[in-house]
Amino acid sequence: MKLNLFPRLIFAALLAFAVSTVIYFSFGNIYSSALFTYGEFKVQFDSGIYRYRILSGYFVLAVYGVLSDLNIDFEVFKLKLFAKNADPALYLSFYIVNTFFLMISAVVMILITLTESFAATHVEKILLVSVAVFTIALSQFVIVPYDVPGYFMQLLFFLLLIKYTAKPTTAQLLLLVIIVAVSTLNRESSALSIALAATVLYAKYGLKKESLVPVALLAAAFLAVYLGMRLFNDSFVTNDGNLLWQNFTQPKNILGLFLWILFLVFSLILAKDQTAAKYILLFHLFSAPYIIMCFYSGVLYEIRLYVPIFITSLFLGRTVITRHSIN
Fold it and tell me: What is the CA radius of gyration of the chain?
């Protein structure tokens, strides 16, 4: 198995690189085209709830600073940029950050499939990773700095959570707490990691201290960062307005809702058995606060909102969770 690990990791990383590169260089992005200037980037991501998603914004601007200082002829990339004032360096910065994190996300996916608790054949493992990579790429018609790094941190949390449940240690739990705290600096969807932990630990231990204490610590880390950033900014903005009516009346958002349902059904079909399917539904139940906020203030047409739930469901549906027995 270890001899086959390196080729799998390389394949997953190269698949992510190739798919992301095709998406960014072969298609013109209409949906996010207004964001590819430094001024519009700052206006968008330094206001409203976006001002609290700071981590990945720093990544993009750091890469942008490097590219801007280099003597690069951006014409050679033949970029399909619709806005006349679009900055090729900024577009490439999005590409570099999101492609890098997609590649390492694919690597973590492979590592998840190689854990002892993951029940799938070699072919199924590769196909599950491929489905996740292509789904993330499909959702990239909305280009933002924080989604793909967020998937990486969520998948890393998944991997370490499985290791923690196999052999719980204080050090591993502390690492999970740190990941939640850091990923909350990236986006509030880090709450889905808490929902995942609640699902896995409840399935293993039930309502016992072995599940309640870790979930409480993870929730405390999330709230500390979430509230701390708002106190620091003297604002407690949690959303950018009510879009609930539009989400149930506009055709494109109804299409988005249809895709949410389709992705859910797909993950249930791929689950290894009825027990795993129940885990997926339980994870959705624990994810209810995130889902409600998506319906209230998100744009359902932006299927990226469901992608972190879908990816987690894909791998959760193949994870064997052995009930802990007390002797």
Answer: 20
